[in-house]
Amino acid sequence: MTEDRFETIAIHAGQDPDPTTGAAVVPIYATSTYVQEAPGVHKGYEYSRTDNPTRTALQTQIAALEGVDPAADGGAVATSSGLAATALIGYLLKPGDRIVLPDDAYGGTFRLIARVLADHGIAWTAADLSSPEKVVEAVTSDTKLVWIETPTNPLLKIVDIEAVVAVAKSVGALVAVDNTFATPYLQQPLSLGADLVVHSATKYLGGHSDTVAGAIVTNDAELLERLRFLQNATGPVPGPFDSYLLLRGIKTLGVRMDRHCANAGAIAEFLEADPRVDHVWYPGLPSDPGHEIAQRQMSGFGGMVSFTPAGGVEAANSIVARTRLFFLAESLGGVESLIEIPAVMTHASVEGTDLEVPASLIRLSVGIEHVDDLISDLDRALG
Ligand SMILES: *Cc1c(COP(=O)(O)O)cnc(C)c1O
User: Under a CB-based contact definition with an 8 Å cutoff, are residues 237 and 80 in contact?
Assistant: First the structure.
């Protein structure tokens, strides 16, 4: 294990100067195939669905940031989207297996589990994973995977990863943590006992809202080999251009996250003190039920803030129509601030299920603009 710290790893892991030219930046290897010296004699690359050097560099970088121990033969698999990563994990399961997932899971994850994997004989149970008793009730002997999101989306509940890992292990289930919201800069689930870490790299890892990608990270050599096999067999790979954009974005992950956290904290305090706001969800607020665990498990509270305005759905609609800096858009984790109404946007697919969210809930992805400008924008929009 390198002694380097996070910010240094982000810039150096997997990114040695190019051996043939000395290029300081990992090249975009825009090639589908690799010339062999003789049949089967090559430099480790045969075909770019299987491996591509730009992708390899990205995988090394992400694995190092999640604290993978190279001696344990773990690593990362970069994928064409976050959901492609989730689907690959789904392929680890067999008919009759059960997934336990959060009752406010990311809408796309819920859709994949409830409307795709379910058709292939995989059962699921949604539970409030922030409550240890509910987790104990939810897991059964057929539970093969417990899917954790923390902070959850969009209600930013905090799940005690170590506590859920202990329950999952008692029935022999794997634990996957969707670390999209926290990023490895704020939270390292493998060190808390998780088997798999999943990312929508589209969000904070990429950080600039300019590419769609995902990743899976594990310390388990067998799981890594199986996932690499599944990826090669099913094909959801990121291209070299997307891999390059991620490598580039991830270099600044630490400095961006510091600013996302500082801005989000200030905005959460501003909203909590404002009478035009009914309730604020942000794990950094001492009033938040997840605050204590978040303090223990994370090194910062992230850039996502959710709130309900005092005026209900009508007020929510006018607020999102009035912001100037906060763009009305789905997605999150970019340098620019975004605002949305999950019930009709990101979470429309969970309407009428246990995973439904309050209709007037507004979710903010707080960017790295100047915080005073962001607060003025919200102040004006609150009317
Ligand atoms: C966006 C997102 C996903 C899905 O990732 P894609 O890159 O859009 O496929 C999964 N989990 C969370 C928490 C997300 O925000």
Answer: yes
Helices (H), 80-131: 82-90, 107-115
Mutate to test the pocket of ligand 1, among 101, 155, 202, 332 (most ligand atoms within 8 A of CB): 202
| Amino acid symbol at 137 | E
Query: Residues 141-177: pLDDT tens digits?
Result: 999 999 999 999 899 999 999 999 999 999 999 999 9
Rounded Cα gap, residues 257 and 184, in angstroms: 10
Residue 333 contacts residue 318 (beta carbons within 8 Å): no
Identify which of 110, 17, 38 has the alpha carbon closest to the alpha carbon of residue 346: 110
φ, ψ of residue 329 in degrees (nearest 5): -165, 155
Question: How far is C-alpha 35 from the geometric centre of its chain's CA atoms?
Answer: 36
Helix orientation angle between 82-90 and 107-115, rounded to the nearest 10 degrees? 30
Q: pLDDT tens for residues 317-339?
A: 999 999 999 999 999 999 999 99
Q: Which domains does the chain have, with CATH numbers?
A: 6-250 (3.40.640.10), 254-382 (3.90.1150.10)
SS3 content of the chain, % helix, strand, coil (to 5): 40, 15, 45
- Chain Cα centroid distance, residue 225: 22
Please tell me the distance from the alpha carbon of residue 313 to that of residue 329, in angstroms, as a whole number. Answer: 17
As for ligand 1, residues whose beta carbon falls within 6 Å of it are 81-83, 106, 108-109, 149, 153, 178, 180-181, 200, 202-203, 212, 214
Instruction: Yes or no: say if 204 and 264 are a contact pair by the CB < 8 Å rule.
Output: no
Is there a catalytic annotation at residue 244?
no
